[in-house]
Amino acid sequence: MEMGDVEEYLQRGIAFKAEGRYEEAIAEFQEVISADGSNNEAHRQLGLVYGFVGLFDESLEELKRAVELNPQNLGARNDLAMSYAMLGMYDEAKAEFLAVLEIDPSNEFARRELVYF
């Protein structure tokens, strides 16, 4: 798969996710990851979809992988923090929001959510 194809699969997966076509979205993101395992956005999107369908362990695994691949991806970090919060893992959620604010002290999303902890 060429890089252009990777982006095409990623965008198609995002479109499927937006339409609620989660199984198709999962397949697209898995294709991207099999071609480019270091694609942090594919891991992030796959993690989000896994969360939508109730695969919470897999969701956390993929979101953590996205953050490992690119610690500067604040969207992935906020998504991971929100997933932790939804699962009652409040210490982990707080730590992740604090990590976002270390990178970007003006991050409104993290600032707003941190109030709950």
> How would you sum up the major sheet?
none
CATH class of the largest domain: Mainly Alpha
Shape assignment: globular
Task: Tell me the strand percentage band.
Answer: under 5%
Task: Describe what is shown at a glance.
This protein is mainly alpha-helical. It has helices at residues 3-18, 22-35, 40-52, 56-69, 74-86, 90-103, 108-114.
3D architecture notes:
By secondary structure, this protein is mainly alpha-helical. The chain has two domains: 1-55, Alpha Horseshoe (Serine Threonine Protein Phosphatase 5, Tetratricopeptide repeat); 71-117, no CATH class. The protein contains seven helices and no strands. It starts with a helix and ends with a helix. The model has no long low-confidence stretch (mean pLDDT 95).
Topology of this structure?
Layout: H1 3-18, H2 22-35, H3 40-52, H4 56-69, H5 74-86, H6 90-103, H7 108-114
